[in-house]
Input
Amino acid sequence: MDIIEGLSEFSSKFARWNPNTDLSGYPFVKNIHAPFTTVKRALPMMNLGLVSSAGAYIDGTDAFDLDSKDGDISYREIPVEVGAEDLKFAAKGYDTAAVLQDRNSQIPIDRLLGYQENSVIGGLNSVWWSVSSYVPNARLVAESLAPKIAERLHRYDVKAALFIPASRLCHQTLGIVARAVEESGIPTMMLSVDTKVTDSVRPPRTAYYKGEFGSVAGKPDFSEYQLRILDEALRWIETFDQPGSRKLAVDLQSQVEAARGER
Output
């Protein structure tokens, strides 16, 4: 299956796109079909991989390039032991305020390690993958970045992967990467707060809700909210029997909580 359907058409439109207009007139990828890999083991037996497009990098190392028209298609492989205080962010298309206040709002390492301790997941992989929040050239994502991420996930024997975008454009980037990873035989789940983009690019499994860029994994310093998002999305990895998207119940749960005066 093509990771990007109609790639030549996208490339032609992208060549004419003016990056100085931000995303005005940008030719977002449009796919009709989606790859799908059946889950072969239960969540408590899975080594879970995490892929973030918040543009995180370790302090003292090179930042992602945000000035190129194509974008930066490199990635960073970051050990889970690296603390939030040692991370910097090359951000474009989202506000870093939430992730700087609480890394888990965008990169939920602590929440997933908690799941590991309580056997909700078999384990969080020893490293996670960070990509740029700004990669306009989707062809390079499909042809270079996506297969590299898929190869690394296989190298670490990851059994399922969670994708968390930060900006509008990186909903497309991670959607493309998720398609390639799924095509390679690893089940995926993608969080989304921009259904227009994810419905267009069609990652195999999408869990969406009415959230904000920069805190796609949940509001900062609100662990209960973050856990609602992750719990439902991760459990859905097992229950999807075909490509598609589902709405998380986090909004309804939060409204009930607010009405009770609990938050």
The chain has eight helices and ten strands. Residues 39-259 form one domain.
